[in-house]
Write a structure and sequence with these properties.
The chain is built from 13 helices and 10 strands. It binds NADPH dihydro-nicotinamide-adenine-dinucleotide phosphate and ligand LBM42IJL.
């Protein structure tokens, strides 16, 4: 186990970040280490171990005394998630923060017609802030027979958190689950009867809306046991996830326009550092003080000042409970299938 030192977990805050080898997850790790250089036991949970090693080395270059371990986990694979959770249970007695950040948006397509229509409508600001109605994706099916976006962004994380319940639930000490959701999460893209989004063309939006609902259900279930869940939106950030949408020369050309757009909508955070603002902000908050119905947005002003703002989500308790029940059924189904 790279960098693992038994006994260390007793004194330090234990933080695990999924999708930590690039983009917003990696930026968050850097920010956490700058805030608490010595007092953190940081675990980077990554699918690609080569990229994880590179990320660990980069973090150690800027924070040489940091304690950073690696964990192999593919959130889209049931067996990988179960194995990773087993490993975490062996390594730690308690988890203080679990950042559920890994995510994909495969084969994104910009609907150019809808985009230009939006440009000349009153929806222009919200179109740039949320990408609503102008992006579609083509999903795949995993070897477990699940829709890949659902499995990666939502279900793998749900299973992981459930498997880590003994480390997250303590009456004398609180723990936080923090989901990297999105302002692209829309009720209209989500259907309880098709929670994996097998039929639609917006699996990304659907998975993020599901994470908003799930976070609420987790709070209902687990707050009494000291576990709190919240969701954030990092804003629009230039990362591997968004680079795929347009050819790279177009992004370069558009950059000055994006800086200008930021004057009108502070949601154009653009850099992973800025995008990690809300994730970082929640690290410093008392979880009891957070609103389970709010999404915490990373925002960057025209002058480059970062701040976090909560906004009420379009979710309700009844729907969150129904989703939770469906996820439990799927959980027992996949565990049976994997003889677990
Ligand atoms: N960029 C943006 O504008 C926005 C991003 N977000 C969300 O932020 C989160 C981070 O994305 P971002 O930093 O932008 O993009 P990146 O592509 O840079 O980061 C995504 C991370 O998720 C990991 N990942 C992807 N699939 C899996 C998997 N099956 N198992 C484990 N890890 C996986 C990637 O690892 P690997 O190296 O193995 O691919 C990578 O570390 C995502 O949840 C995304 O939806 C939300 C709103 C806006
Ligand atoms: C062709 C021109 C001039 C501009 C194209 C801009 C869009 C590609 C861009 C505008 C708003 C962006 C956006 C996202 C993707 C890229 C845009 C649609 C997201 C949907 C990316 C993922 C998220 O989770 C959202 C928060 C982003 C919202 C804004």
């Amino acid at each position: 186990v790279v960098g693992f030192q038994p006994g260390l977990t007793k004194m330090k805050l234990v933080v695990l970040v999924t999708g930590a080898n690039s983009g917003i997850g990696l930026a968050l790790c850097g920010r956490l280490l700058s805030e608490v250089p010595e007092g953190l036991q940081l675990c980077l949970a990554c699918r690609n171990m080569h990229r994880a090693e590179v990320a660990r080395s980069a973090l150690l270059t800027s924070h040489p005394t940091a304690h950073i371990t690696l964990l192999q986990m593919d959130t889209s694979s049931i067996s990988s998630v179960i194995k990773a959770a087993q490993e975490v249970r062996l390594r730690y007695e308690h988890l203080d923060y679990l950042y559920l950040n890994a995510g994909i948006m495969p084969n994104p397509q910009l609907d150019v017609k809808a985009f230009f229509k939006g440009l000349f409508s009153s929806r222009i600001i919200s179109m740039f802030a949320t990408g609503e109605g102008i992006l579609t994706q083509q999903d795949n099916v995993t070897s477990d027979g699940l829709q890949e976006v659902f499995a990666t962004n939502l279900f793998g994380h749900f299973l992981f958190a459930r498997e880590l319940e003994p480390l997250l639930c303590h009456t004398h000490r609180s723990s936080q689950l923090i989901w990297t959701s999105s302002s692209n999460a829309h009720r209209s893209a989500f259907d309880l009867e098709d929670m994996q989004h097998r039929r639609g063309t917006q699996p990304y939006s659907s998975s993020k809306y599901a994470s908003d609902l799930l976070s609420l259900a987790l709070n209902t279930r687990y707050n009494k046991q000291g576990l709190y869940s919240s969701v954030i939106c990092p804003g629009f950030v230039m990362t591997n996830l968004t680079y795929n949408i347009l050819p790279s020369f177009l992004w370069t050309l558009l950059m000055p326009i994006f800086w200008l757009i930021r004057v009108f909508t502070h949601t154009f955070t653009l850099t992973p550092y800025n995008g990690a603002e809300a994730l970082f902000c929640l690290f410093k908050q008392k979880p009891e003080s957070l609103d389970p119905y709010a999404k915490y947005h990373s925002l960057t002003s025209g002058l480059g000042k970062n701040y976090t703002e909560p906004k009420k989500m379009d979710i309700d308790l009844e729907m969150s409970e129904l989703l939770y029940k469906k996820l439990l059924i799927l959980e027992s189904h996949v565990k049976k299938k994997n003889s677990l």
